[in-house]
Amino acid sequence: MGYTEESCSLAQFRALLNNRDGGAGLCHATGLEQNVPLYEAPALRAKLADNTRGPEIMAEFADVLLDGAGVFVIKQAFADPAVIDQATMVFNQIIEAERTSQGGQDHFARAGANHRIWNALEKLCVKAPDIFARYYGNDMIALAAEAWLGPAYQITSQINVVRPGGEAQQPHCDYHLGFLTAAEAARYPAHVHTLSPALTLQAGIAHCAMPVASGPTKILPFSQTYGAGYLAWRRADFRDYFEAHCVQVAMDKGDALFFNPSLFHAAGANTTATVERMANLLQISSAFGRAMERVDRRRMCQLLYPVLLTARQSGELTAGEISNAIAACAEGYAFPLSLDETPPAGGLAPKSQQVLMAEALAENQSPDAYCRTLA
């Protein structure tokens, strides 16, 4: 049987969340704030220098997202804050250009005080591919994404700016089932409600210091463990419970928040007089799911390849950073395709955009030669 909005039980929900310890069984977290595990990127990077430690760190991340708090923070995820500042400058230019032509509106908050850049991933790559390469070469984003989704994940991005006085969002669960009406979501069987969160990882990158008063994400740890959550979040009694028990974690510039999309969450109100809160909201999709935004990855590949080729030849970016940037840009999954036009050769599937770009870089192909492989 499936779930219904009427059958959701606040008593059962409360029982799942009460007396839970977000730090239980964690070996790599360096702290716990209001039941939210905190990780320090420098400590993680030191462990990752031992190539055998990556799988155990990723397994811990997955356990937190699935059965634990449902959310964690990586402090100092960006080792170089200058990369954040450079991207912020580009995003501000895009905001100014879009302000006069369109209004960026939030799904779950009133328009006006907030500004959204939709498809910020592609827009950053088009406007500043060199900054894109350094920004998405980030190892912590790649580590968390692969921990939850496996390889060949697909990143999409939206910039959210909440100015002083900006109101909070309504609590909600997110894409996929979170973007359906209650009636539509109820049509999907219970096992699909269990599957949906495994197709997406939500993340937020702090582009400025975010004290609690500025409204960092309000979250309800462990709420993702309630199976009917995609229907329950719409009910007034569940929303009231959320507002009474949610927590917020202050973030510094360059910190990253990762959470299960079925976790009850909402952007907070910005009650400061001066802080313009900017976050890069990442929606990272499994290779086996459909991303929410349509991204022209072929165009991005054409623009990013010359930058990565130069960076590889000069040593400006490490092999790992180049691999992470490719993963953020290129399509990692070969399907769907026409098997008449592109039959598999020597394997079960043709080469993906990610494989083609990595091979072209390894062979030092010219940008023109590489672009011909995308035709």
Structure description:
With 375 residues, this protein is an alpha+beta fold. The protein has helices spanning 10-17, 41-48, 54-66, 81-99, 120-127, 129-136, 139-149, 182-186, 190-195, 229-232, 236-245, 297-314, 319-329, 353-362, 367-373, and strands at residues 31-33, 36-40, 71-75, 114-117, 154-162, 200-206, 218-219, 247-248, 256-259, 265-266, 277-285. The chain has two domains: 10-285, Sandwich (Jelly Rolls), CATH 2.60.120; 297-373, no CATH class. It has an eight-stranded mixed beta sheet. Strand 1 (31-33) and strand 2 (36-40) form a beta hairpin. Helix 6 (129-136) crosses helix 12 and helix 6 (129-136) packs across helix 13. The radius of gyration is 21 Å and the shape is globular.
**Radius of gyration in whole Å, from Cα?**
21 Å
Compute the number of helices.
15
SSE order: HEEHHEHEHHHEHHEEHHEEEEHHHH
> How many domains comprise the coordinates?
2
Q: What can be said about the biggest beta sheet?
A: 8 strands, mixed
Average pLDDT figure: 95
**Shape verdict:** globular
Biggest sheet strand order reads 1-2-3-9-6-11-5-4
CATH fold call of the largest domain:
Jelly Rolls
How many strand elements?
A: 11
